[in-house]
Prior knowledge:
The chain is mainly beta. Strand 10 and strand 11 form a beta hairpin. The chain has a 12-stranded mixed beta sheet with strand order 7-8-9-10-11-1-2-3-4-5-6-12, with helices on one face. Helix content is about 5%, strand content about 40%. The protein starts with a helix and ends with a strand.
Amino acid sequence: xxxxxxxxxxxxxxxxxxxxxxxxxxxxxxxxxxxxxxxxxxxxxxxxxxxxxxxxxxxxxxxxxxxxxxxxxxxxxxxxxxxxxxxxxxxxxxxxxxxxxxxxxxxxxxxxxxxxxxxxxxxxxxxxxxxxxxxxxxxxxxxxxxxxxxxxxxxxxxxxxxxxxxxxxxxxxxxxxxxxxxxxxxxxxxxxxxxxxxxxxxxxxxxxxxxxxxxxxxxxxxxxxxxxxxxxxxxxxxxxxxxxxxxxxxxxxxxxxxxxxxxxxxxxxxxxxxxxxxxxxxxxxxxxxxxxxxxxxxxxxxxxxxxxxxxxxxxxxxxxxxxxxxxxxxxxxxxxxxxxxxxxxxxxxxxxxxxxxxxxxxxxxxxxxxxxxxxxxxxxxxxxxxxxxxxxxxxxxxxxxxxxxxxxxxxxxxxxxxxxxxxxxxxxxxxxxxxxxxxxxxxxxxxxxxxxxxxxxxxxxxxxxxxxxxxxxxxxxxxxxxxxxxxxxxxxxxxxxxxxxxxxxxxxxxxxxxxxxxxxxxxxxxxxxxxxxxxxxxxxxxxxxxxxxxxxxxxxxxx
Length: 559
């Protein structure tokens, strides 16, 4: 008994005599300044790793405190996240890597062993000293190193380096007795992301179908799904917060067939309601209340171009449904692959931020004549790229809709954009005096679904500014066969190809069409005219070609 007690007292005395260290690190790139700072507290067999940076005075929502604990005696790492309302943690074993020793060097006055390891295609160099006679690291992944990490380098350009060591003889427990609610590591990481990402659900599994029995809306209450254009267009009025400019805003869309077998044009859009005339009036009344463009053949096109008192729909995402995904999966099979259950589109729409705060009307359109139609979900997610909730005082963003021929009210009589055969589209816009960056966000897709229709024939799109040729390109997609697993109802042909495999004018069934950005920065301040010209093909029998083009002037300026 006396012998056991003496051993215990000896061990306690050994622990008490051990020094506790506060070790500070800074991160930087080649030739750069410090970007972040880490504090490592060490005592006995335990470490605490946390940020040494001062927290922001006005943090973004969802910011918590992250701390990592290493317990060498237990061969464990504890990752903890603390929030105002809860605390979570996960535990993992220390990873014991096989390091390649590459000699010794003196770094910051410490004699160091140099180790090299390749992780995820990155060359990692580590300089470790035993001079401090403790194991300590600011990166828990390298907790197995046999000493104190003095310097870390990734691919020769990203560094973390020891900057200060403070010795403290006071011993205290490093790993707290209560760590919080346990989660798996993936679940904990997702919790941290979810709390920082601002999420706004707009539509959730809402049906878009042809239903001539649907009544026209009379009013637009907040957070209610309104159906227009015989059910082929849904709209929701929402309140959205103004976000700091460092947030990146993405639209996430899922879609699947609820009965319609065909590839259809779809659009996610915003209705600007701040002008005297608005498409909201057309939803209540008819497309006849919109400004009319009459082409040389006398055909009328409603609400497609900006005027002094009207702005066209602001297109966020142009997408195309596949041929019958989910609803028709059971009717056909592939020999080597499985059908998808739905299609997923995700697109950065940050440049439209002037229209994504306050009172916002967001809609979704899928042109179809099917009573089952499609099911669609839309979520807007804003991802922070900084930790401070602060706003620029002198920078202003431009997002001015100029034109949009995508006829979102097709089933209520809005005409197809088929005037390019004999006409062009012209609009007037103004360049602000202090514009720093100005672009035309241009989306274009060609339609006419027979062999010689514009869907299957490349056509040059020409942009003219003030009557002079300014930019041109030919929209074309040759990767449509990549998306075969989303197209179970696609027609199969004698040559082994499927209809969904064929290349098209700027789109494929089951994909979103990415905008083209045309640099207008060099234009002088003041009024200019912009013209879109496309050599649209001749009609054939009862078929005709058309072009869905939308253009938004985006940029920024300072006052």
